[in-house]
TrEMBL record:
Signal peptide: none annotated. It comes from Microbacterium testaceum (strain StLB037). Pfam families: DAO. Keywords: FAD, Flavoprotein, Oxidoreductase. GO terms for molecular function: flavin adenine dinucleotide binding; sarcosine oxidase activity. This is Glycine/D-amino acid oxidase.
């Protein structure tokens, strides 16, 4: 079987793969994207209508990425004529974080930050219960994940890139510094492919795709979990809802039962989304049942009842997704020979998507 020759192959058409392909195609690089499922599928981590554009970071590097990401999201909106990022603000509360210290870091990083007492926070957002100080970041907001990935892929195709849907990559093998070979398997058959560079952005399938390559041995352990946020019906559809993060103090009398911290936001047309961060069970993505864990469901309903007075805790719809996490929640952005890796986004990567794509595209071009 003669091999089809491509310049750069991107494996995985979720957010990070789509963003990498977008950057490469904008630079005039010939890029082909291989996605084992259909674009916009619900088996991974890039689907759904809402993600927080959360700027509550202490680290200057993350804040610099966020400044760049904000610019790139607006560029993508202009190119695609699609609204993607809405500024709603995000409110952070709970004693598990030094909020005043975070506020100082956020201001130094170029974003607004406002400290509020519990009374003032409650007056602004009566749908959320506060039991202590709150940190409001007015420049934060909400991203439409589905629309973002679709825009990245459409702009890639418009610039000359190709997307191969329902095409699984098997038997990835590095032959030399400028040659990677694999089989591309689809419903209509399979073909041999040879690429000068390969970018692996396969999410929960990263370890499987990399197989026994040297790039696989360079990975930290990637833990794949199924997470299960839910959309709760708001009691007043006109009430204001910022995004939210609730990180309780360890051993707090009213929060000791929390399995993890909480994140949330309003998803227009669906309700108020709330979920535990990285609390779900470890799973094999190919044997996933998509069934929510009943204990986590019960805990989330209790949280809504006790801490979100603006929702009906008995009227909700659960959804599931995956996290692929590293031990320290830091991202894997690396190149080993001709293979570039973007992995381990640990449940907090989506907001950085266009920056991650730029970094991985830079790695492709690095000699």
């Amino acid at each position: 079987m003669s091999a089809e020759q491509v310049d750069v192959a991107v494996i995985g058409a979720g957010a990070m793969g789509a963003a990498t392909a977008w950057h490469l195609s904008r630079r005039g690089v010939s890029v082909e994207v291989f996605e084992q499922f259909e674009p916009g599928h619900v088996r991974g981590a890039s689907h759904g209508a809402s993600r927080n554009f959360n700027v509550t970071y202490d680290e200057p590097d993350y804040l610099a990425w966020l400044r760049e990401a904000r610019v790139l999201w607006r560029e993508l909106e202009d190119e695609s004529a699609t609204a993607l990022l809405e500024v709603t603000g995000i409110v952070n509360h709970g004693g598990g974080r030094d909020l005043a210290g975070a506020a100082a870091a956020i201001r130094a990083g170029g974003f607004g930050a406002e400290m509020l007492d519990a009374g003032e926070a409650g007056r602004r957002w009566p749908g959320i219960r506060f039991d202590g100080p709150a940190l409001f970041t007015p420049d934060a907001g909400r991203l439409n994940a589905d629309a973002s990935v679709a825009a990245l892929l459409s702009r890639t195709v418009a610039a000359g890139g190709r997307v191969h849907a329902r095409t699984r990559v098997e038997d990835l093998a590095v032959r030399d510094d400028d040659r990677v070979e694999f089989r591309a398997v689809s419903d209509t058959g399979e073909r041999a492919v040879r690429a000068r560079r390969v970018v692996v952005t396969a999410g929960a399938w990263t370890t499987r795709v990399l197989g026994t390559t040297d790039a696989a041995s360079a990975l930290p352990r990637l833990r794949v979990t199924q997470e299960q946020p839910a959309h709760f019906a708001p009691r007043d559809v006109t009430a204001p809802w910022p995004g939210l993060n609730h990180l309780p103090a360890p051993g707090g009398a009213e929060t000791a039962w929390f399995p993890a911290g909480i994140y949330g936001m309003l998803t227009p047309g669906e309700g108020v989304k709330a979920g535990w961060h990285a609390a779900g069970p470890e799973i094999d993505p190919d044997r996933r049942r998509f069934t929510p864990d009943p204990d986590l469901t019960a805990a989330l309903v209790r949280y809504a009842r006790e801490w979100l007075p603006g929702v009906d805790a008995d009227d909700f719809r659960e959804i599931t997704c995956t996290y692929t996490s590293t031990p320290d929640s830091r991202f894997v952005l690396d190149r080993v020979g001709p293979v570039v890796i973007g992995a381990g986004f640990s449940g907090h990567g989506f907001k950085f998507t266009p920056v991650i794509g730029r970094i991985l595209a830079d790695a492709v071009g690095r000699d």
